[in-house]
Design brief:
alpha/beta; seven-stranded mixed beta sheet; Thioesterase
Length: 225
């Protein structure tokens, strides 16, 4: 693995045991998912992945397929994880990576927190506002450019391939229900749980506790099966 690919890996907890991988949402950092990552760390090692574009000399990806290729190359040496977790765009990336592992006969559990499954273009007059919501109004040009690239990637993403393994979708009741319907059509073994909040609130207090409760229930059911 090249040093450029290795730099995309963000170890959150080292050790032995079932590996959980946390994929980045739009914006490219794993910071918004650290609460969930810390919870997953109770079960074993956790590996985060950050997006390309945040460091000098890197280019951000504007398509989910390109992000998947990059992250697959970085993660492949680690072996198949037991859990792929992602919020927003990160959940879509988790799904697409799970399809890769399925081709090798592995079926990691996929956890998607309010993740897009159907293309939903962002109007030009809303893009600046959305970028500021995601990037927190930062002046960092790399963060802003990466966020713009990810808005393009997420808004153009269309999930098309069925995944035969276990999956959990934690959906926000205040968001577009078309995404949940699309995931339901594609997943052979999908559990859907709802949280009564908006997309940008779901991993913050007090809603994070509900998300973690659904996560535990899902993973515990797989261990008991």
């Amino acid at each position: 693995m090249t040093s450029a690919l290795a730099s995309l890996l963000v170890p959150i907890k080292r050790g032995t045991g079932p590996l959980s991988v946390v994929l980045p949402p739009a914006g490219g950092g794993v910071g918004p998912c650290l609460g969930a990552a810390a919870h997953l760390a109770r079960r074993g090692p956790v590996q985060g992945v950050r997006a390309s574009g945040l460091m000098a000399g890197e280019e951000p990806d504007t398509e989910v397929a390109a992000m998947v290729e990059r992250y697959w190359a970085a993660l492949e040496p680690l072996g198949a994880p037991s859990v792929l977790f992602g919020w927003s765009l990160g959940g879509s990336l988790a799904w697409e990576l799970a399809l890769r592992y399925a081709e090798l006969g592995r079926r990691p559990a996929v956890v998607m927190v309010d993740s897009p499954a159907v293309a939903e273009p962002v109007p030009d007059d809303q893009r600046d506002h959305l970028r500021d919501l995601i990037a927190g109004g930062t002046d960092d040009e790399a963060v802003r450019a990466t966020t713009d690239a990810h808005i393009t990637a997420a808004s153009g993403y269309q999930a098309r391939q069925c995944y035969p393994g276990p999956a959990l979708l934690v959906a926000c009741r205040r968001e577009n229900p078309a995404h949940a319907a699309a995931w339901r059509d594609l997943a052979g073994h999908l559990r859907i749980a709802e949280v009564d909040c908006g997309h940008f609130e779901v991993l913050a207090s007090p809603h994070l506790a509900a998300v973690l409760g659904h996560l535990d229930e899902f993973l515990n059911s797989l261990e008991e099966a």
